[in-house]
Amino acid sequence: MSDDLTDPGVRNRLLLIDDDQVFSVMLAKALxxxxxxxxxxxxxxxxRRELDTFTPDYVVLDxxxxxxxxxxxIEELLEANSEVNILMLTGYASVATAVEAIKLGAxxxxxxxxxxxxxxxxxxxxxxxxEAAVEINPVSVKRLEWEHMQKVLLEHDGNISAAARAxxxxxxxxxxxxxxxxxTH
Length: 185
Hints:
Elements lengths: L12 E5 L3 H13 L3 E5 L2 H10 L4 E5 L1 E2 L2 E2 L4 H7 L4 E6 L4 H10 L3 E4 L4 H9 L16 H15 L4 H8 L3 H9 L6
Parallel strand pairs: 1-2, 1-3, 3-6, 6-7
Antiparallel strand pairs: 4-5
C-alpha cells in the first residue's frame, strides 16, 4: 500500500462530529498533522450534509451533540460506508452508552479528555484485547448512580421526563444530576 495520501487506496478520510467547536478545531489540526483528510461537523444536521459529498473512512463521533445523541448517526454512517471505523467520544461516559455504541457498530469508545494519539490508536484498533487490564477498585455509589441514570435515560430514548418518572424523581432533579460531570470511580 502506498504512503501517498492522495492515493485512492489510502484510508485517510475522517469526519469529526462534535459540538465543541474549540475541541474540534484543535483535534482536526492534530489529525491533519497525522495524515488524515479531516472534515468537521458541529451538529447532526451538518454531519448529514457532509455525508452527501464526503465518504469517511473514519468518524470521531461525540455522544452528546447539543441536545441530540450521536448514537442516532451510527447507522447512517455505516450505510454511507460499511467499512467505516467509528470512534465514540464523550465527556459523559457510561457503561450503557458504551455497550450501545459498540452494539450499533462503533469500533471504540473513549472518554474526554483525549489526545490526538489516543484517537488515532483507537481508530486503528478494530479488535478486542483479551489482555486488557481489569480494574480491581470497586465502583463508587455516585458512579453507580450515574450509570443507572444513563441506562434509564437510554431506555427512554433520551426523554428526561419519562426517565425521571421511571426512577421516581422530579424531572428537574434528574436534569441537575445529568448536568454534572460523571465521577470516575
